[in-house]
């Protein structure tokens, strides 16, 4: 009788153990690491060293006039860079909920860059300039480079901006570079190299 009782108690204990294990939730899969940003040393060469600011959550509050209001704040981070001269840069990364949304976002950002100069001229009739598509960079799902050269003839000021939009899966990045001067003095090939690095570092 003791043997039977012991056997029943052992079986019951084993059953409780199995039930308890079944009720323990499976460990959640670790969240994927967020995309990586450019470092200061990966920006185009400059006469003075680049300094990288902190990575900040959300979209930039000001400065990105061509792409403002397109990327959602959720899933977006950005980082600013500067030199001691009148040169600055910014990288923005958005991780979309799906690949299709990332594709749509990249297309919308490209469209915004392609029409940016016309929109700026509408806002400021005294502005003059030229905008060019500078080609595709073959990296991951691809990146596209643009230049926008603006000037105010009445005051003699000129500014050149280089821009790129790239994507790797659900991550979309925009890289902006600008300084006083004209396109002839801009590091276009260096910026394309920076764009390639920015997309390659996403994942």
Question: How would you describe this protein?
Answer:
This protein is 29% helix and 31% strand. With 203 residues, the chain is an alpha+beta fold. Strands 1, 2, 3, 4, 5, 6, 7 and 8 form an 8-stranded antiparallel sheet that branches. A hairpin with a 5-residue loop joins strand 5 and strand 6 (143-152).
Write down the Rg.
26 Å
Count of runs of 4 or more consecutive helical residues: 4
Mean pLDDT: 88
Give the number of DSSP strands: 8
Residue share in β-strands: 25-35%
Through-space gap between termini = 65 Å
- Helix/strand structural class: alpha+beta
Largest sheet geometry? 8 strands, antiparallel
Percentage of residues in helical conformation = 25-40%
**Element-level helix/strand string:** HEEEEHHEEEEH
The parts where pLDDT drops under 50 for at least 5 residues are 1-22
The outline comes out as globular
How would you summarize the topology of this molecule?
Elements (H helix, E strand, L loop, with lengths): L1 H22 L27 E2 L3 E2 L18 E7 L4 E9 L3 H16 L1 H8 L4 E10 L5 E10 L4 E12 L2 E10 L7 H13 L3
Antiparallel strand pairs: 1-3, 2-3, 3-4, 4-8, 5-6, 6-7, 7-8
Throw out a few tags for this protein:
disordered N terminus; alpha+beta; single chain; 203 residues; 8 strands; 29% helix; eight-stranded antiparallel beta sheet; globular
Summarize the structure.
With 203 residues, the protein is an alpha+beta fold.
């Amino acid at each position: 009788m003791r043997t039977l009782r012991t056997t029943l108690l052992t079986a019951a204990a084993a059953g409780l153990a199995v039930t308890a294990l079944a009720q323990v939730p499976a460990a959640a899969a670790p969240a994927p690491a967020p995309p990586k940003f450019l470092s200061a040393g990966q920006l185009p060469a400059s006469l003075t060293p680049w300094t990288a600011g902190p990575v900040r959550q959300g979209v930039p509050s000001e400065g990105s006039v061509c792409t403002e209001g397109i990327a959602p704040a959720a899933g977006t981070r950005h980082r600013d860079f500067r030199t001691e001269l009148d040169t600055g840069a910014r990288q923005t990364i958005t991780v979309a909920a799906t690949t299709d949304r990332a594709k749509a976002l990249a297309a919308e950002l490209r469209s915004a860059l392609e029409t940016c100069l016309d929109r700026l001229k509408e806002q400021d009739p005294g502005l003059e300039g030229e905008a060019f598509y500078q080609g595709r960079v073959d990296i991951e799902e691809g990146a596209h480079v643009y230049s926008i050269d603006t000037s105010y003839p009445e005051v003699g000021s000129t500014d050149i901006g280089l821009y790129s939009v790239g994507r790797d899966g659900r991550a979309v990045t925009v890289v902006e570079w600008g300084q006083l001067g004209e396109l002839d003095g801009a590091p276009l090939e260096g910026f394309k190299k920076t764009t390639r690095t920015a997309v390659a570092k996403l994942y």
